[in-house]
Amino acid sequence: MGDGAGGERKSKFILIAGAGPAGLAAALELARRGFAPRIVDDGDGPVPPEESRALGVNARTLTLLSPSGVAERIVTAAQPIAHFRIRSGSKTLADVDTRQVRGRFGAMHALAQGVTERLLIEALASYGIAPEWRTAIAAEPIADVLAPVVTLRRADGATETLRPDIVIGADGAHSAVRKALGAGFPGEALEAYFHIADFRYVKPVDAQFAEITLFDPGMIGRLPVSGDVLRYISTRQDFEDRIVHPEVVAEKVWVSQFRIHFRHVEPMAKGNVFLVGDAAHIHSPAGARGMNLGMEDGCWLAWLIAEGREQEYSALRIPAVKQVLKQTYGLTRLITMENPLAIATRNLVAPLLLRFGPARRRLLHNIAGYDTPKPPWIDWAE
Ligand SMILES: Cc1cc2nc3c(=O)[nH]c(=O)nc-3n(C[C@H](O)[C@H](O)[C@H](O)COP(=O)(O)OP(=O)(O)OC[C@H]3O[C@@H](n4cnc5c(N)ncnc54)[C@H](O)[C@@H]3O)c2cc1C
Predict the structure, then answer these.
(1) How far apart are CA 174 and CA 278, in angstroms?
(2) Which strand (E) or helix (H) includes residue 115?
(3) Where are the domains of the chain?
(4) CA distances from 203 to 51, 227, 362 (A)
(5) What is the pTM of this model?
(6) In whole angstroms, what is the distance from residue 30 CA to residue 116 CA?
């Protein structure tokens, strides 16, 4: 089970639609193994750092991005999250030291998705590959999935017809590639909306911990974006009035709100057309798993292609996807519950459980992303 890194340029024509984290990770891992994929994206460029959805980069992702050298660059740019706390009012119910997780990386680092994307693009540039921006793949049905024919449309209206050996749909939740395959996206949407506000402070703040404060009902999560920017995320519309700011606010950097869906496509591939990242699965941000799982898909698919085993992709990834969906569903239900009795029980039981070693270790193991299969091409212990 070799890594297959380096060597001469491999001749397979691989088209990646979508230069978000999942598509970029796939492109980089393919480039590292001697392939020269084309990667197109209908956007203008990577996500602006101040409009980043994902912040949490887990230990498993850092393992996967180590061979390319990107992990070290992420660690240098990111805030390590040393503690994860659960609070109710002024009381700390649980305080988990995330550095206790095994392995060379802490369980979680925080870095704006826009910065992670730029680091991946920089690494890809060293192989002479750059995303082609303002270039969309059309959602036209793919008649023969073994010999796919696809159309690209540029912003100036020019079109191009391509016959790639392999198409990788990394084009997000509304994936044109998934639609072109005629695949559904079954699942459910939760009633609750999540609200986000990022604040910059006049001075650096303590950015070394993530915290959830439980209310009755609802919660406010606090996460570091950088040394002087914090994100608050909540199920409560009035959450901004309840934030206890650690420092004087200089500016509100970003506000957003979104509804949570739990959906996944099965199988994650048909013939030579593959789906990675949000194109294949979406779920709540509880646990900070979406971007990480998408990059993991991209890295696995690149390895399988290099091994000539890409037809195993869906069967290998579906159990990991289901595991993460199940876990984030449970976590989301826990933080969005409204029944007073259930809330009281949760507030009593959760901190008690987290005092015990096995429950803490399990939580850390999952936060680190170690609950999905270890990448077989990485030969050192995580
Ligand atoms: C509030 C919030 C917080 C989150 N926090 C975290 C977190 O802390 N950690 C975590 O792991 N995840 C988190 N997530 C999830 C994470 O943001 C996503 O899972 C991640 O962005 C998915 O990456 P992707 O590359 O699959 O898709 P995307 O990031 O959506 O990228 C898809 C790309 O495809 C392009 N595209 C779309 N259509 C086409 C087309 N037809 N042709 C060509 N290109 C196309 C788009 O322009 C885009 O660049 C969070 C999500 C939300 C909403």
Answers:
(1) 8
(2) helix 113-125
(3) 1-55+112-185+265-338
(4) 21, 9, 36
(5) 0.95
(6) 18
Is 164 close to ligand 1, i.e. is its CB under 6 Å away? no
* Arithmetic mean of pLDDT over the chain: 93
Look at the domain 1-55+112-185+265-338 and name its fold.
Answer: FAD/NAD(P)-binding domain (3.50.50)
pLDDT digits (tens, 9 = 90+) for 68-84: 999 999 999 999 999 99
Distance 44 CA to ligand 1 centre (A): 15
- Residue 356: partners with Cβ closer than 8 Å, 6 or more residues away: none
C-alpha distance from residue 217 to each of 57, 160, 330 (Å): 29, 53, 17
Residue 382 has pLDDT above 80, yes or no: no
The owner of tokens 């987290």 is: 354
Q: Is the beta carbon of 20 within 6 A of some atom in ligand 1?
A: yes
Q: Which atom of ligand 1 is nearest to the CA of 293?
A: 11
Question: Which secondary-structure segment (H or E) carries 320?
Answer: helix 313-336
Cβ within 8 Å of residue 379, ≥6 positions away: none
What is the C-alpha separation between 163 and 98, in angstroms, rounded?
47
Token digits of residue 73: 């660059």
Sorted by sequence, the CB contacts under 8 Å of residue 280 that are 6+ apart come out as 169, 175, 178, 264, 265, 268, 297, 317, 321
307 alpha carbon – ligand 1 mean position (Å): 27
Residue where the block lists tokens 């270790």: 361
